């Protein structure tokens, strides 16, 4: 693509990013998506978001670039979007659109929208990318071990359908009454049923928290397909597991999937493919290895006794 045309395209996309897309299609700074990327990359994205909100654009670009360099598609998009708004940060005029094209080719809808706004497609863009993607100075890969931020989870919940969002709010409301961090409870429900109250598994796990009949009976659930009863039973079980494994999220997640007996028999996560993948997803969503006690505000109801 000729350099003058690339510059024109970049300018056109910049205008779209700062006007037509400012309302919510990806051009303005918003909390990163709640993905199951490795926690260290997700935290770099969140650092970039906080820096951008504080108008520390160079720091934001460094954090986004650090995550993008390690393979984060969301970071590729966020860096491309940021460079469109701050051309002085780019090494070359077409860095931003090339980053957006890279993310768009991998299915990122926000990047696809920005490219479409500029009447371009991923196939039209060249391969010149920011130098920071090839430098060890793009950002530290150290991991803080912090729980996923509330604003990231809130953005995810807001994106759900009306029915699934109602189920997510139910989980949020009830979890503190069981001494369970709502973010962990939401990670469990997202992985178990993706907030589908009618979900059933081949192993007869049912409802939002995929309770099997024995577990439902153990924790006093009379109607396993009733969303609130299902969530209360699942939270009671989750609380019991967190106490048993002293807040260890990895062990608790493994036990929720495979049963506490299997975890104790193997002295850790059982070597089952399903459980290994389940634990990976929970750890990616929650991010922290140790459960964080919720801050109790107004409890919706009294806590039932454990069975």
UniProtKB/TrEMBL annotation:
Query: What residue stretches are annotated with the Transglycosylase SLT domain?
Result: 173-268
In the record, biological process GO terms are: peptidoglycan metabolic process
Tell me the keywords, alphabetical order. Signal
**Pfam families for the chain:** SLT
Claim: Protein biosynthesis is one of the keywords in the record? no
| Keyword set includes Signal | yes
Q: Where is the signal peptide?
A: 1-22
Q: Which GO terms describe its cellular component?
A: membrane
Annotated coiled-coil positions are none
* One GO molecular-function entry: peptidoglycan lytic transglycosylase activity
Family assignment from sequence similarity: Belongs to the transglycosylase Slt family.
Q: What is this protein called?
A: Lytic transglycosylase
Protein species of origin: Parazoarcus communis
């Amino acid at each position: 693509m000729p350099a003058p045309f690339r510059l024109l395209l970049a300018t056109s996309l910049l205008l779209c990013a700062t006007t037509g897309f400012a309302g919510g299609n990806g051009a303005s700074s918003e909390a990163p998506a709640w993905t199951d990327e490795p926690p260290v990359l997700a935290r770099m994205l969140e650092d970039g978001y906080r820096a951008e909100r504080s108008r520390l654009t160079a720091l934001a670009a460094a954090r986004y670039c650090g995550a993008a360099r390690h393979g984060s598609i969301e970071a590729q998009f966020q860096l491309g979007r940021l460079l469109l708004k701050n051309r002085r940060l780019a090494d070359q005029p077409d860095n931003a659109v090339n980053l957006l094209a890279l993310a768009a080719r991998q299915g990122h809808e926000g990047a696809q929208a920005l490219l479409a706004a500029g009447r371009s497609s991923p196939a039209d863009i060249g391969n010149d990318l920011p130098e920071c993607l090839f430098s060890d100075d793009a950002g530290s890969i150290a991991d803080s071990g912090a729980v996923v931020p509330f604003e990231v989870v809130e953005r995810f919940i807001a994106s759900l359908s009306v029915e699934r969002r109602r189920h997510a709010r139910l989980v949020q409301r009830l979890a503190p009454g069981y001494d369970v961090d709502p973010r962990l409870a939401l990670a469990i429900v997202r992985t178990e049923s993706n907030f589908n109250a009618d979900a059933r598994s081949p192993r007869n796990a049912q409802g939002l928290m995929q309770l099997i009949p024995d577990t439902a009976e153990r924790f006093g659930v009379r109607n396993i397909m009733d969303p609130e009863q299902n969530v209360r039973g699942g939270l009671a079980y989750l609380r019991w597991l967190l106490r048993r494994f002293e807040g260890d999220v990895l062990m608790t997640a493994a036990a929720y999937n495979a049963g506490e007996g299997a975890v104790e028999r193997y002295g850790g996560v059982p070597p089952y493919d399903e459980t290994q993948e389940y634990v990976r997803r929970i750890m990616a969503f929650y991010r922290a290895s140790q459960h964080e006690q919720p801050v109790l505000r107004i409890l919706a109801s009294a806590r039932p006794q454990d069975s």
